[in-house]
Amino acid sequence: MIDLIKDNIAQYSITTIALVGLAALFFFKKVIKLAIFFGVLAAVFAAGFLVAANQGEAALPF
Question: Which are the contacts of 30, defined by CB distance < 8 A and separation ≥ 6?
Answer without folding.
Answer: none
